[in-house]
Amino acid sequence: MSLSPDGSLYREIALHLLAALLAGGLIGFERSFHGRPAGFRTHTLVCLASSLLMLVTLYQSYWFGANASEVVRVDPTRMAQGIMTGIGFLGAGVIFKEGLSVRGLTTAASIWITSAIGVLMGIGFFFAGFLATALTLGVLALFRHIELRMPTHHYAQLVVRFRPDMPMAEADLRALLARYGFDVANLSYAFGAAGSEAEGFEYRMMVRTMRAPLERLAQALAGEPGVTEFKLSPTGD
Hints:
Radius of gyration: 27 Å
Order of helices and strands: HHHHHEEHHEHEEHE
Oligomer: single chain
Number of domains: 2
Strand content: 15-25%
Strand order of the largest sheet: 4-5-3-6
């Protein structure tokens, strides 16, 4: 390899970066289409930056000089390790907790794999990089439909408050939930004295269902005599 940059070197570098730009843009487009906080530009930049940093190690002879092997020994895998460590902080930034719901896990995972694809593009493993891009898009787009059809438990937080003089017995509440396809995962109780902000008898619980509609349960609770307030919040990514 010549140590003087020439046209072929610039074409190689451009190929690496354009491949990373394309791969990151494709994954980012899917994320933007579904309204995720880290979308088209974020994924494109992550992939491009990872590729760019790997080029530093790939063409190290150009910045170490002709006697690079005699001066210093560079381990390219250390750069990849540093990239993946740094991406952890970016991924953590798109994960947020709202009540009992945790959102952003899939987006964080997509940022992580986009960075890995950028590393592949940076070192010139184009087949592996584009294959990983296609598989990632398949997981994000196609697996979504598979996941929707998979039999799985879904959880929701239920808080229901009754008038102090008309509390529903726990057994009756459990029977009502079972009638609409829900069972109780855990249960706690609270009582507010008359005149307090949380006046009345309150149940707080996590309910579980195999895709029974929350709307039917909400309508049933709204029609129950003695119910003064309730909150039904699904959990999940």
